[in-house]
Amino acid sequence: MQMETIVNHPVIETERFDLRPLRRSDQGLIELYASDARVAKNTTSIPHPLPPGVIEAFIGRATSDPRDMECWAMDGSKTGSDEVMGLITLSRLDRNQSEVGFWVAPAFWNTHLASDAVLALVAANPLNNQAMFATVFQDNPASAKVMTNAGFVYLGDAETYCLARDAAVPTWTYSRKL
Hints:
178 residues; alpha+beta; Aminopeptidase; 8-stranded mixed sheet; 5 helices; 8 strands; 24% helix; 32% strand
């Protein structure tokens, strides 16, 4: 029998949902949503089609110690919604900075879930960062709106590789001083 690792970072509470550390029991819902091409194609790191074992390995990395990324599930169970509606991450950068990443399951698109999650994460500032950054694909203006709604400022254009698209994709970069 293997004991589950308990990740040591805070639960961030909002009225509608909690941002809580991942647990192994999240694997099924994460696989369901991450295997959707619409989700995968709006991230840099989710392949499509989703190979077996990818989410299990991701949860293992997200709950290991040490790690360079903190990951929270958007858990709506306190209001009768899904235990996993999406994920939000903070990847550590140098000089006391982090990069925000997130995805939301299509069933919860256009509900302001992503905006509320980013706002809650910024307000909590669990890594005591001086600044946060985010990169969004230029063909995903909804994610750009999430960032500006959370007080992030546009920095410039770039491009990054997307596994699901197997291509470099133009991006917009945002930052927020804390």
